[in-house]
Amino acid sequence: MKWFKHLVFLVFFVIVFSFVEIHEKRREVLLEKNSKVSYVVAYPRILRTICLFLFGVGVILFLYLSIMNIKYHGELEKGLFVFASFFIFVGFVGYILMRIWKIEVQENQMVVNKIFYKKEFFIEDIKNAYLEKNGKLVIILPDGYMIKIDKECDNYEKFCLDLKDKEIIDQ
To answer: How far is Cα 143 from Cα 146, in angstroms, rounded to an integer?
Structure first.
């Protein structure tokens, strides 16, 4: 029965992951229906896919180890389950964080969604914005909060062009 608490842990993560996925799909449908939202700047889909893959590998490994633990009457080491749980945890947390972080750009308004931060403001209110040498876009928000956007993010070019058209960053 040692494996039972690990199985409960696994089922909990799978259920929470499913609820988050359903909520995000529902939110994406609502965003598509809302004609105001022009585009969303977010982490690349490949990174979210990698985190999802890590989560899946962890779940499969955990299930395999649970079956082997039952077969060999609890003779497997606890470290193997910790190793599988590590994959599950990293994949889950990474995926959730990447789904939360985004910038929704509307006609002349932005909504910045970070982990513990959600702020709406007008694009014209941005204090400063500039491009670093490595291509990252640095935006300083009206309240002094700084956001760095990597050039690999979805809709990065469109966002930079919008800021250049509104003369917030130099050409």
So the answer is: 9
